[in-house]
Amino acid sequence: MNDFDQIIAEMREMHIKKRTDYGRIDDPYANVRASEAFGIPGWVGALTRQQDKTRRLQKFVTEGNLANESVEDSLLDSIVYGVIALALWRELNATQEGQISQDSQPEYSDRDKGWQASEASNRYCTECCR
């Protein structure tokens, strides 16, 4: 097995272990979907968690140490959150045939109502972040 395949295997093994703690039998992404209770789409919640890992890695780059998690763990977590974001994105935007529309921006579902683009092209919740 080459390095790439080994890393993918490690990432999968770590995800399986963690989803036992964080997910539910009927929904392995339940912990990430929790962001929906605040009006934030699940895929955006996953990106937020991925950004937390990026910030942790930035701290390591600038300060040279991490207190609670290794660089490798942070990198693996970041990859997993990216995969989860993609899975939730695809779920949200699946067509009736179960395919993804690659040539257009998605329509947001009822779960995503309340989100608008601001003048600075950032997204914000119109229900609680006015």
Q: What's the total count of β strands?
A: 2
- Which parts are unreliable, with pLDDT below 50 for 5 consecutive residues or more? 116-124, 126-130
Question: What is the overall number of helices?
Answer: 4
Q: What percent of residues adopt helix (DSSP H or I)?
A: 40-55%
Question: Mean pLDDT, nearest integer?
Answer: 79
Instruction: Tell me, briefly, the overall form.
Output: globular
Task: Give the N-to-C terminal Cα separation.
Answer: 51 Å
**SSE order in H/E notation?**
HHHHEE
Biggest beta sheet attributes: 2 strands, antiparallel
**Radius of gyration using CA atoms only:** 17 Å
Task: Tell me the number of structural domains.
Answer: 1
β-strand percent reads: under 5%
Biggest sheet strand line-up: 1-2
What structural class is derived from the secondary structure elements? Answer: mainly alpha
Outline the structure in words.
- By secondary structure, the protein is mostly helical.
- It has one domain (about 5-100, about 115-125).
- It contains four helices and two strands, in the order H-H-H-H-E-E.
- Strands 1-2 form a two-stranded antiparallel sheet.
- A hairpin with a 5-residue loop joins strand 1 (about 115) and strand 2.
- The radius of gyration is 17 Å and the shape is globular.
- The relative contact order is 0.12.
- Mean pLDDT is about 80; it is low at about 115-125 and about 125-130.
How do the helices and strands line up, and which of them pair or pack?
Layout: H1 3-22, H2 30-33, H3 42-63, H4 71-93, E1 115-117, E2 123-125
Antiparallel strand pairs: 1-2
